[in-house]
Every structure is written in structure tokens, then in C-alpha cells.
């Protein structure tokens, strides 16, 4: 590849990495993955190179090429190890409060390093890579059942109609958060969490997330 250039070692910081035990090899891998994410945020996917990652991680480029074939395979591996702290849903006994707490938790995560990685990733051509798409699906698939508990409890309390789809409801809740993160650049704050929670709770109570949507007005 054209990015197989030399460079001087350097250091840097990246996103949140799942670190595994295993001595120097695991430590080097974690440092390389952190460097990948830091470079992605700093220079973008177009500027991401293996030599640049090597300089930031303080390793020789051959160390990276022994394990990963090229830039894209390295990026996919780093993203597979990347993990945002999952947001644990709370049970306050109130649908709107539960939704607000969850929205506040999501905002707390995406307003930090995780959000910078997601923004750099999904606003570039990297988001179209097959490996990246698979990682994205895995991340969301592992978190959706956690948030679904909020709606399942609300159904059990009779706060929302039976048959309310928990995934559709939570998608509606977090959509404005990711819209601001990835598109508009608007404030990610408690006011947004409150607005999203109130709108979602009202829509859920009206049956908007049941099959067929709410009943028509008579």
C-alpha cells in the first residue's frame, strides 16, 4: 500500500479499549488500537495511515503489518475491540423518568471520546466498509435488549399499550441525540434528554409504537 512509509515513534491517546491480559503482545495491541482511534478522530479516515498509527503508538510499522494486512483491516480490528460503556437502564417507576435517565446516559457517553470516534467513523467513507458495518450491528445488537427493559416494564405497569415495540420506542428516543451528534452539531445536554423523553413517552402512551400505530381519532 502507498501508506507504508517510515516515521518516528510517538505517543497519543484514543478511545476506550477492551484490554486483555497476555503480557507485552496484548499491551502493544491495545496501544495500537488506541492509536488507530486517536488518529481517526484527529485526521479522519482519509488521513488515516498505518505509518501514522505506528508513530502515535510508538511501534515500528512492521509490527503492525505482521498482524494486519492494511489500514482497513486494522481499523476494523480496533473498532471490534472498542467499547463504549453500556448505559444501564434505571427503574424509577415512571416511564418518562426512565426514558430521561436513559437519554442522559446515552448523551453522557456520546459527548465523550466514544462520540468523537462515532462521528469520525460514520461521517466518512469508513462507515461503508463491510467490517465496520458488522461491528456497528454487533454493538447495537448487544445494547438494544438492555434498553428494551424500560418499555417492557412500562407495558407491565399499564403505562403504555400492550404490543408496544420496545426497540422502535427506544429508537425514537435516541434518534434526536444521534441526529445532533452526526448531523446538526446541536447541543447534547439535559434539555435534549428531557425533550426526547417527554415526546417518546407521549407517543408511546398514544400507541404510536404498536403494530399499525395509534388508533385514528373518532
TrEMBL record:
<dbReference type="InterPro" id="IPR001647">
    <property type="entry name" value="HTH_TetR"/>
</dbReference>
<dbReference type="Pfam" id="PF00440">
    <property type="entry name" value="TetR_N"/>
</dbReference>
<feature type="domain" description="HTH tetR-type">
    <location>
        <begin position="26"/>
        <end position="86"/>
    </location>
</feature>
<dbReference type="InterPro" id="IPR036271">
    <property type="entry name" value="Tet_transcr_reg_TetR-rel_C_sf"/>
</dbReference>
<feature type="DNA-binding region" description="H-T-H motif">
    <location>
        <begin position="49"/>
        <end position="68"/>
    </location>
</feature>
<dbReference type="GO" id="GO:0003700">
    <property type="term" value="F:DNA-binding transcription factor activity"/>
</dbReference>
<dbReference type="Pfam" id="PF16859">
    <property type="entry name" value="TetR_C_11"/>
</dbReference>
<keyword id="KW-0238">DNA-binding</keyword>
<dbReference type="InterPro" id="IPR011075">
    <property type="entry name" value="TetR_C"/>
</dbReference>
<keyword id="KW-0805">Transcription regulation</keyword>
<protein>
    <submittedName>
        <fullName>DNA-binding transcriptional regulator, AcrR family</fullName>
    </submittedName>
</protein>
<dbReference type="GO" id="GO:0000976">
    <property type="term" value="F:transcription cis-regulatory region binding"/>
</dbReference>
<dbReference type="InterPro" id="IPR050109">
    <property type="entry name" value="HTH-type_TetR-like_transc_reg"/>
</dbReference>
<keyword id="KW-0804">Transcription</keyword>
<dbReference type="InterPro" id="IPR009057">
    <property type="entry name" value="Homeodomain-like_sf"/>
</dbReference>
<feature type="region of interest" description="Disordered">
    <location>
        <begin position="1"/>
        <end position="22"/>
    </location>
</feature>
Amino acid at each position: 500500500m502507498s501508506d507504508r512509509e517510515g516515521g518516528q515513534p510517538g505517543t497519543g491517546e484514543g478511545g476506550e479499549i477492551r484490554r486483555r491480559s497476555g503480557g507485552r503482545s496484548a499491551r502493544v495491541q491495545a496501544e495500537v488500537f488506541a492509536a488507530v482511534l486517536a488518529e481517526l478522530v484527529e485526521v479522519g479516515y482519509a488521513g488515516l495511515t498505518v505509518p501514522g498509527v505506528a508513530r502515535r503508538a510508538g511501534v515500528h510499522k512492521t509490527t503492525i503489518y505482521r498482524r494486519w494486512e492494511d489500514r482497513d483491516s486494522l481499523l476494523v480490528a480496533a473498532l471490534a475491540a472498542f467499547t463504549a460503556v453500556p448505559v444501564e437502564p434505571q427503574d424509577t417507576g415512571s416511564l418518562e423518568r426512565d426514558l430521561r435517565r436513559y437519554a442522559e446516559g446515552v448523551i453522557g457517553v456520546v459527548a465523550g471520546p466514544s462520540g468523537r470516534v462515532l462521528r469520525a467513523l460514520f461521517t466518512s467513507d469508513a462507515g461503508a466498509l463491510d467490517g465496520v458495518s458488522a461491528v456497528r450491528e454487533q454493538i447495537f445488537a448487544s445494547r438494544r435488549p438492555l434498553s428494551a427493559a424500560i418499555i417492557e416494564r412500562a407495558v407491565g405497569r399499564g403505562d403504555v399499550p400492550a404490543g408496544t415495540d420496545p426497540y422502535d420506542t427506544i429508537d425514537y428516543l435516541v434518534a434526536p441525540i444521534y441526529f445532533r451528534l452526526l448531523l446538526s452539531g446541536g447541543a447534547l445536554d439535559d434539555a435534549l434528554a428531557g425533550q426526547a423523553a417527554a415526546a417518546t413517552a407521549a407517543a408511546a402512551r398514544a400507541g404510536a409504537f404498536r403494530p399499525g400505530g395509534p388508533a385514528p381519532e373518532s
